[in-house]
Design goal:
Length: 504
């Protein structure tokens, strides 16, 4: 658990009682609703390179959805008419809590600040929901029509949008070692991390209604490893953007996961993954956990109506996904249980309890796991209304489970187990996580926003007495250095004092 991690979530957006909307335009306007003052672009896009691959090369193009050409033509016409620049379309905001809020083409996206505490991360993930809901309320008042936001991963028409969990880890781990250790885990963790889904959906659309599965994203993965995220998605993404010292760190950009409404599921998903990464760094994952036919297996586990979730390893052994997860758990209990961090103990305890409950009776986890809670909700509704699994009504119910409105979202009507309090979430709206580089970023934005010329995850450029001064934040991935910089910031009444204290 001693690492930085974060979550990027793209939200579905629509207008009430509107069958078709310009999602790009509505997403842009929603993000602009975050602040009432004029938008001032400061995000530094030079620090981003989605074409660089962790395997040591740079790709020339990224794979796009089949609808992308039509969308590009619509974007071209809109931008020509409205004269929107690239930065206006992105509408990037850097928040005082260290997070990033922006338009990712047709989806508003919230990227949490980097956290070193699991429960801080859960609080900041939930804070993202509340920030976006407040944007929706502001936009709705101006538009005269309700804007609805959904923390889910599909529109039921063949488009999937992501929730990416990110982890800073040692660069010295060879990529093949990382892939061999993490890919089988990603495939089977959906038994507790899946958000639940009506129907089997592909890029061609909704192919099979009347079918309930574990994961919203499983149907959209087609290759084992690549740099792509929009189409031909890989189980293991190879994008090489560490946002830290590249000689020491890599960032595991996990795209094979669902957006969770459940605080408990989010904590278990991220916590177990962080422990598995620690095992990979220690070279503890045996090759015997590698699964045969990963692309087929991620789908068959999601679709399995028996909840036995049988998988086959590369060496021909058949086992349940629960027992597969137990192999990872046993390694973590053996090699990581001596950690003095209470969050590690929480993850190990809840991981074991959840696997045991899944084996005995998955429906006993109604108060913890999204896919179980949603299934219970749908089954209850079906019984009351006398309808079957193939009734189109259930799609609406599926979607409303993910509505982030605290008063209307169906998730918020179920008594779910909490791991953070409302007070912690409220604090995360306004405060960056302590002891991290996100603290430096958030506090700098809060106190010295007018002096900021450009900002990225790993740097801030100030204008000081007419001259630019860039503070490189790469070294702040180290907790001790982050603490030194954070103390210097807190002790500095002006940017000039800060620059002098840091010797820049």
């Amino acid at each position: 658990m001693e690492r930085l991690f974060g979550i990027e979530t793209e939200y579905g957006i629509t207008l009430e009682n509107e069958a078709h909307i310009d999602a790009v335009k509505q997403s842009i306007e929603l993000i602009k609703s975050y602040r009432q003052e004029d938008f001032r672009p400061v995000w530094d896009y030079r620090g981003e390179d989605p074409f660089r691959d962790e395997r040591g090369f740079r790709v020339e193009t990224l794979s796009n959805h089949p609808d992308e050409k039509d969308e590009e033509e619509r974007d071209r016409k809109r931008n020509k008419k409205e004269k929107l620049s690239f930065v206006e379309i992105k509408s990037d905001h850097i928040l005082v809590n260290g997070a990033r809020l922006y338009n990712d083409h047709a989806h508003p996206e919230y990227s949490t600040p980097e956290c070193s505490s699991l429960f801080d991360l859960v609080a900041h993930d939930k804070a993202g929901e509340r920030i976006l809901h407040r944007c929706a309320e502001t936009r709705s008042q101006k538009l005269g029509k309700r804007v609805l936001l959904y923390k889910n991963n599909t529109d039921f028409y063949g488009h999937s949008y992501g929730c990416h969990d990110n982890y800073l880890m040692a660069r010295e781990v060879p990529f093949e070692t990382l892939k061999q250790g993490i890919m089988p885990f990603f495939i089977t963790r959906q038994i507790f991390a899946g958000a639940g889904k009506i129907g089997i959906e592909t890029e061609a659309g909704l192919a099979t209604p009347g079918h309930y599965q574990l994961s919203q994203r499983a149907d959209f993965f087609h290759v084992e490893a690549s740099v792509d995220t929009m189409h031909n998605r890989p189980i293991v993404n190879t994008r090489d953007e560490p946002h830290a010292d590249a000689s020491k760190y890599r960032r595991l950009h996990g795209i094979a996961g669902d957006a969770n409404m459940s605080e408990y599921a989010t904590a278990l998903k991220v916590g177990t993954t962080a422990l598995v990464i620690a095992l990979i760094e220690q070279r503890r994952i045996p090759e015997s956990l590698a699964l045969a036919n990963p692309i087929d297996t991620i789908k068959t586990v999601s679709h399995d109506q028996t909840y036995r979730w049988m998988v086959m390893t590369e060496d021909g052994k058949t086992m349940s996904a629960i027992d597969h997860q137990r192999e990872y758990l046993k390694l973590a209990q053996k090699h990581l249980s001596k950690s003095s961090l209470p969050e590690t103990d929480w993850v190990l305890t809840e991981w074991e309890d959840t696997l045991n409950a899944l084996e005995k009776d998955p429906m006993s986890l109604i108060d913890r796991l999204d896919w179980v809670a949603k299934r219970w909700l749908l089954e209850t509704f079906m019984q009351e209304e006398g309808i079957a699994w193939d009734d189109i009504w259930l799609q609406s119910l599926d979607l409303e489970y993910h509505n982030i409105d605290l008063e209307e979202g169906l998730y918020y009507g179920i008594p779910m187990r909490r791991v953070v309090t409302d007070d912690q979430i409220e604090a995360a709206l306004h405060n960056p996580p302590m002891g991290t580089r996100a603290y430096f970023r958030g506090r700098a934005v809060d106190r010295f926003a007018d002096a900021i010329k450009a900002i990225q995850w790993d740097s801030i450029t100030f204008i000081v007495n007419g001259r630019t001064r860039e503070i490189n934040l790469n070294a702040l991935a180290e907790a001790e250095i982050a603490q030194q910089y954070n103390e210097a910031l807190d002790e500095s009444p002006t940017v000039e004092t800060l620059i002098k204290k840091l010797g820049i």
